[in-house]
Amino acid sequence: MSRVKISVIGAGSAAFSLKLVRDLCLAHSLRGSTVSFMDIDEDRLNAVYSLCKRYVEEVGADLKIEKTLNRRESLRDADFVVNTALAAGHDRLREGWRVARSLGYRFGGSFHVMHDEAFWINFYQFRFFESILEDMLDLCPDAWYVQLANPVLAGVTYLSRKYPEAKIVGLCHGFMGVYHLAEALGLDPGHLDFEAIGLNHFVWLTSFRYRGEDAYPLLDTWSEE
To answer: Using one digit for the tens of pLDDT, what is the confidence trace for 84-142?
Structure first.
């Protein structure tokens, strides 16, 4: 039985946190684990905690759900730290988009990385990322830092250079496009084996196999016909 502790920083997103808990409930290797939800918005934190705790209880999963407003408390003895937080807040994000549109820009962000990744909030994000890493090195130095908060590519690059002793990985959802391909081809996603590599939202499908066989010919035929 696993005794892993997963700290989720910025857990106030019901959509993300519930999906994460659902996946953890399906992971038999993580039975007995603890998920520590942390957010500075108490109302959102309480709502997410109640929703996820009820879900765990109803499916009968062996998963302990905790909540706290104190980040260091959440990080203490963690094995994995998942950062989903937007430190600058959505008000700054929306205001930046408004200014960009007023100047004739369709997107307010750095288009080479992500169409809506707003570079004007990156100062706040980088400062926040650093504070998490420094707390981790103090409280859970062997834990993996998993960054989902934007800017993923720039953030992971910066943190890896400044904190080479830390275990850092960045994740984005770009790879999931392979499942749209599978649907178009009429393939059962349960029998897919693929590799998608790249930087943030620029990813390449370098291996695409179905039931152990190369599936690129299927894709080529579909594209032609």
So the answer is: 998 877 787 778 778 777 877 766 554 444 445 667 778 889 999 999 999 999 999 99
Radius of gyration of the chain (CA): 20
Predicted confidence (pLDDT) at residue 46 exceeds the cutoff of 60: yes
For the chain, give the DSSP string.
----EEEEETTT-HHHHHHHHHHHHH-GGGTTEEEEEE-S-HHHHHHHHHHHHHHHHHHT--EEEEEES-HHHHHTT-SEEEE---TT-HHHHHHHHHHHHHTT-S--S-TTT-TT--GGGHHHHHHHHHHHHHHHHHH-TTSEEEE-SSPHHHHHHHHHHH-TTSEEEE--SGGGHHHHHHHHHT--GGGEEEEEEEETTEEEEEEEEETTEE-HHHHHHHHH-
Are 77 and 139 in contact by the 8 Å Cβ rule? The answer is yes
Contact indicator for 86, 12 with CB cutoff of 8 Å: no
Residue 185 has pLDDT above 80, yes or no: yes
Q: How far apart are CA 125 and CA 114, in angstroms?
A: 15
* Rounded Cα gap, residues 73 and 67, in angstroms: 10
